[in-house]
Every structure is written in structure tokens, then in C-alpha cells.
């Protein structure tokens, strides 16, 4: 079970509105804020539980779920949020939510139940303790209700929400942010509405934008669904992005994938590779790309790669490729400047 890093960003935005500093929050939650830099990042269930529990404690706001639903930016739900708002009907919006819900979290999407006069959107979520369950239900259902209201326009489609928990002390927040009927102590969490809402045209929908967003969502979903089978590729991408200029280490890389170093090593072995081999592959490719630049001398390439001495880079590069940096440049850089050719020849004599 995992969740999009965008949900964490949205939570941080709301906490700032409530006076909680991000740095302090991340420290209390034991969370590396650098992980927010990866737009495709995910957090595991235990991490998400802790992030939300610490947020509840620090904000001292029992109605945090409603605050999140009202004030989280659209980007909290990634491309899916913009796609839904450009769907032509509420029925289509529900269908797109079901199709791409995995982009938001690895859990069952809301399920549509159509009755004779009314329909219900059954909402499920990953269960934790009572506080977090209430937060998640309020966050999800309030957000769904606000989206449904956008499709509802000024017409009355008999909107109501059902919660499994008891009536809370902060009932005024419900009245303030939820312009619909509210029921507690229900068997399931749901959003209920008149069937007439399903096919009501959304006046602000843009079909061309929706098509573009759907293509983007399909691409993202394809990448996400193939993620577990391409861990090695993901590791290489992370090393290329984060670790050029400093030596990548197993434990810090593993933490980005919510794994221990031992687990990452085992999973890579199952794919027929090792962490060291992947790191060498990336470092070799980056070094070769740098050597193609005739304006960079070998020493500068070595320093950019994180080597304190050119001799260390020379040994590593020969281990990666079977040849020296000077020999590789001579063989692959036909357009090298005269200065680079002199450097290659001189360095070769020095190594002889």
C-alpha cells in the first residue's frame, strides 16, 4: 500500500496555514523533506499514518480532514484532479477517477452504486486508528462533495454524505464546509446524489484539455504499474538525478524506495543485478557524456564526478570501460580541440 507524495505536499500546505512550520513538522515526523522533490515519489502506509498522526498532534485541529479538503491545492491529487474537472459529466468524472485512482493511492477507487432514483459513491480508504480514519473519511468525502457541487451548478440534486463515525464535537465545521445533508453512524462511507446529476453537462469542461490530461494520466499509470518490475531502472534514475558528484550509498538510495538496504539488495538480485553494478553503469555513462565535451579537461571531469584525484577517476573509468579516459576520448571525440588532443597525448605518456 502506498500513496502519492503529492498528498504529503497538500498536507504540508494546510499545516502552514494552521501555523505549523514545515521543517519542524518533518523533524517531528522523521521524514526527509528532500523526498518531496521527486514528483513521482510515493510514501508507504506506515509513513503516511505517521505523517497524518503528527499533523493532527501538531495542528491541534480535530477537523484537519475537512481543512485539507477545503484548502489543499488541486495539485494534491496530481493530474487526476485537473482531468476530473474537465470531464463533460459527473458520470465521466467518476469513471476517470476509477481508472486513474492508482495515481493518488494504492487502494480501491470509489465504487458507483446506481439505484432507481439515487446513486451512491461508496468511499473506501486504508484504515488506521479512529483519529486517522475520521481524518481520511472527512478529507476524501468532503473533497468529493465539493467536486460534485461543481457539476451540480445551481441545480438541486439532493446531495448527502454518510460517515461511519459518530457525530463529532466540531459539527460547525461540517455545516460551514459541507453544503449538503450529513448522516453519521452509517455502515459505509458514501456520497449520495440524485441520478439526474450523473449525466448533467459540466459547463466549464474542456474536451481538448481532457484528452491531453487523459493521455498524460495513461502514461503515468503505465509507468507506475511497471514500477515494481523495473526497480533497477528506478535506482539508476535516482542515482543519475541525486548522486552525481558524490558517491551513492546503498542505505540512502534504499530509503527513497521505502526499503532497507538489505531489502533493496535482495530485490535487485531478483532482477539479476546489484547496486554496485547499477551505480557503476550510471557513473560510467555520465563520465562518457562529460568526456564528449571538448571544453572539459580530464581533471575537471574527475572533480565533477566527485573524485578528489584524477588518478582515482582514471582507475574507476578503466574498471568501468576497460580503457582510460584519455583513450576513450581519443576514440570517441573526433571533433576534439587541439588542446584536448595535446592533453590526451600528454596524459597517455604520463600514464605509460
Strand runs, count: 7
Low confidence ranges: 335-352
Radius of gyration: 27 Å
Number of helices: 17
- Here the CATH topology of the largest domain equals H-NOX domain
Order of helices and strands: EHHEHHHHEEHEHEEHHHHHHHHH
Organism: Pelagibaculum spongiae
Keywords: DNA-binding, Transcription, Transcription regulation
InterPro entries: AraC-type_N, Homeodomain-like_sf, HTH_AraC, Tscrpt_reg_AraC-type_HTH
GO molecular function: DNA-binding transcription factor activity; transcription cis-regulatory region binding
Please provide a brief summary of the model.
It holds the Pfam family Arabinose_bd. This is HTH araC/xylS-type domain-containing protein. The chain is an alpha+beta fold and 352 residues long.
Amino acid at each position: 500500500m502506498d500513496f502519492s507524495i503529492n498528498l504529503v505536499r497538500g498536507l504540508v500546505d494546510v499545516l502552514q496555514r494552521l501555523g505549523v512550520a514545515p521543517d519542524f513538522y518533518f523533524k517531528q515526523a522523521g521524514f526527509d523533506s528532500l523526498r518531496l522533490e521527486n514528483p513521482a515519489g510515493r510514501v508507504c502506509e506506515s509513513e503516511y499514518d505517521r505523517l497524518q498522526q503528527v499533523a493532527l498532534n501538531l495542528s491541534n485541529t480535530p477537523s484537519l480532514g475537512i481543512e485539507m479538503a477545503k484548502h489543499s491545492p488541486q495539485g494534491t491529487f496530481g493530474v487526476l484532479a485537473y482531468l476530473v474537472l474537465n470531464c463533460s459529466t459527473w458520470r465521466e468524472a467518476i469513471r476517470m477517477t476509477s481508472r486513474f485512482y492508482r495515481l493518488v493511492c494504492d487502494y480501491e477507487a470509489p465504487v458507483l452504486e446506481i439505484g432507481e432514483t439515487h446513486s451512491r459513491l461508496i468511499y473506501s480508504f486504508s484504515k488506521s486508528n479512529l483519529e486517522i480514519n475520521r481524518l481520511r473519511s472527512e478529507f476524501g468525502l468532503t473533497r468529493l462533495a465539493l467536486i460534485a457541487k461543481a457539476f451540480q451548478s445551481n441545480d438541486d440534486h439532493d446531495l448527502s454524505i454518510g460517515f461511519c463515525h459518530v457525530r463529532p464535537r466540531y459539527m460547525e465545521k461540517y455545516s460551514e464546509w459541507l453544503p449538503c445533508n450529513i448522516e453519521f453512524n452509517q455502515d459505509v462511507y458514501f456520497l449520495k446524489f440524485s441520478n439526474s446529476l450523473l449525466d448533467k453537462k459540466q459547463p466549464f469542461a474542456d474536451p481538448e484539455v481532457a484528452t491531453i490530461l487523459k493521455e498524460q494520466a495513461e502514461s503515468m499509470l503505465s509507468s507506475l504499474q511497471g514500477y515494481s518490475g523495473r526497480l533497477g531502472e528506478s535506482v539508476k534514475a535516482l542515482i543519475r538525478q541525486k548522486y552525481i558528484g558524490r558517491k551513492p550509498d546503498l542505505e540512502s538510495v534504499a530509503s527513497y524506495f521505502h526499503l532497507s538496504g538489505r531489502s533493496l539488495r535482495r530485490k535487485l538480485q531478483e532482477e539479476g543485478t546489484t547496486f554496485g553494478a547499477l551505480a557503476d553503469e550510471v557513473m560510467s555513462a555520465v563520465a562518457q557524456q562529460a568526456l564528449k565535451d571538448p571544453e572539459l579537461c580530464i581533471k575537471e571531469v574527475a572533480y565533477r564526478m566527485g573524485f578528489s584525484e584524477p588518478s582515482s577517476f582514471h582507475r574507476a573509468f578503466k574498471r568501468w570501460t576497460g580503457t582510460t579516459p584519455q583513450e576513450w576520448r581519443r576514440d570517441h571525440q573526433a571533433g576534439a580541440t587541439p588542446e584536448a588532443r595535446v592533453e590526451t597525448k600528454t596524459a597517455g605518456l604520463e600514464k605509460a
